[in-house]
What does this fold into?
Amino acid sequence: MIGLLPWAWLCTLPGLLLTALGRGQRPGLASLPGPLAIGLAGVAFLLGDHQPVLHRTAEWLPLVPDGAFSLRLDGLAAVMLCVVGFVSLCVYVYSLSYMRADPGQRRFFCLLDFFVAAMTLLVLAGNIAVLLAGWAGVGLASFLLIAFWRDREGTLGAGLQALAANAIGDAALLLACVLVPAGQGDLTTLAQIGPALLPGGFGPLAWLIVIAASAKSAQGLLYFWLPSAMAGPTPVSALIHAATMVAAGVYLLVRTAAVLALAPEVLHAVAWIGVVTAAFSALASLSQPNYKRGLAYSTCSQLGYMFAAVGFGAPFAALFHLLTHASFKALLFLCAGAVIHAAHGEEQLAKLGGLRRQLPQVMWLALIGSLALVGLPVLTAGAFSKDLILEAALHHDPALGWLLIGSVFLTGLYAGRLFFGVFGAGSSVPHREVHPPDALLLLPLWPLAAGAILLGWVGTPLAALLGTPQVVPVVSNLGLLASGLGIAGFVAAGLWQRARAGAARLPQFGVPWLGPVTGIGRSLASGFAGLHSGRLGLYVFTAVIGTAAILLFAVARAP
Amino acid sequence: MQEQLPYLIAGCVVALLSAFGVVLSKQPVHGAVALLVHSLALAGLYLLLAAEFVAIGQVIIYSGAIVVLFLFVVLLLPQGGREGAPGSARVLAAALGGAGMFAALAFAIVGTRLPASGPAPAGGIQAIGHALFGSELVPFELTTLPMLLAIVGAVTIWRRQEQGGA
Amino acid sequence: MFATFACTPEALVLLTSALLFALGAAGLLLRRNPMAMLMSIELMLNAGNLVLVLAARANNFVGAQAGALIVLVLGAAEAVIGLALALALFRRRSLTDADEPQEVSG
It folds into this structure.
């Protein structure tokens, strides 16, 4: 029975067939058992005896040295199976309601089934050849789903962007596949290949892996396709571009962490790429007028955290953050979908607002997701995983660590901007007809919210399970500092939104980070302008007290 | 300097009392008179500290010119410049500022080991002249700038008054 | 730190000047009448002058006395400008208050 578990990637194919053939009253119902089975397979393995299950058939793929068809189910893969299975299940149920009125519903569910199958194959891959098959499959599914609405403008272009980035990643992975000698392609033992057998040592292999992962996870220069991918339907954004496919890059890095450890300059580069992407995407998110694009940049930023964790030599932290992030980011995206659906397709933040009274359940769910993103200690899972990453960062490279901590403040800012921009009171948008969401749409959001709150506690048992035992602290000083920064940013964004209703926007010149930078400048300036009260008494008082203080300080310091 | 201690104490006390008078007097005229007394007390202190020329300068320039200028302006202001009673916030700010400043200065003074004074500077006016035109020439020359500014500024302000009306 | 403090005449004069300076600062913060504020500023200047003269006496340095003269001159210049401004602004108003927002135009 256990031996069948690696074949879990086939679970969605019956659903795909049934949906494609037009069976069943409601398209998509037949697909529901698929992801559920995948998730249960993961759980079964984790609760079982944790022995890795391997399946290997030689000579499946010609022309590459190691073309065996190898499947592997171990602790890491089982965790990913749980993520893919349960998040997909929530998205499927959500899509039953969301896509109800869409003529292409059937095609949608077929494509989702195809995607889940490819993603599961990717996760269960035992060697690079099979990984490549899954990799290409998810890329294709991503393209087809982004460009799902063929009649809308811009979706095809967005899909092609995704395909272009994917092509770069696929090429890198193919080259890595070719580099690996015959019989030694098992992903977990890549580090044990004798250096003489690898041309150029482990450096080129590591670089190729990193490039492939960056393409898939929208890191560094290859970030461009992710914000454009928001042109697809929201369930796609939640599933593929938040929780699972973009996490595949991180999964690959975690899988091959041993190889990266043998190429320290590549590891260092990964840390840099992660931190820089985290910071810049957070800044960019601040200037996005589109709700979903703001969330897309947020995903980019959080993936940057995971990359950085790998770069700092803490792959478990990256995996843990992947787990919690899947939960709260999917929750945030699905809430965004509910809002957009209720507002009849309106996605621009400027036109959404003040929805607190009309969508109360969605607001609470979005609040849970936002607080998890920001990292509220103890109560949300995001804090546990983020703090683990920050600890590793400060331990390994303090400069990058502090930059990452600064990004936490930016995270709070953009999360607050998105949340208060949509749900905050005091908006200048007039009341409009809002289509209330039905129960089926909101039902799958609650398990995701529960995950966003509770998943932090599985950290320590999970680490023990995966063979890298460590204690995930509930709170730590660093964690409180980071969370404080994040909450401060969140609150600041709320205050800003309240004060800013109706303020004019600066032109962007096509540079996404120009807006936030000038905004920071403006707020600093108005803060200082507040000192110009015009009251002479205040000036004199400040001068006197200041002089006394400086004098005291100088005297106290002198020996 | 020890033998002059009683006179020093007397001079300091008068200076302090008249300073209180300046700060706390309701009518500016009373304050100006207190300022006069204060400057004369300081002139006495300078004499005790063997700075005779500075003492004379204090009497002539300060008491003779500056305080008289103050009195002139007080004369020209309507009702001598009556002002309302200070609110409690003001009093608190003043107390805080004054106390803070005194604390800082006293801290510095008490923490410094002041050496005993040697002989008094000799040479009288000649010595001061040598200093002003010798080692302190640059500051001496630079005082012309503020003086010029004061003259030009005062004239400008008054011209505007005459043209525009307050 | 307090152990090395001895109540010498020099220390007495220094403390007096410190107190005068603090009084001037307090007066500046307390009063609203511009005349009173200017007089408080003069108090502070005088306190500084006292320290200079004491330094000349204690260190046998005449340059400090020259400095005291220069401070005197500067005090006079500053009083001139301050008084001219006060007169210009408050000539027509009955209640003189430096905190009132003033329309200073032209």
Summary: Chain B touches chain C through 96 residues (CB under 8 Å). Residues 100 and 166 of chain B are 38 Å apart (CA to CA). The helical segments of chain B are 5-24, 28-48, 52-76, 88-111, 124-133, 137-142, 144-164.
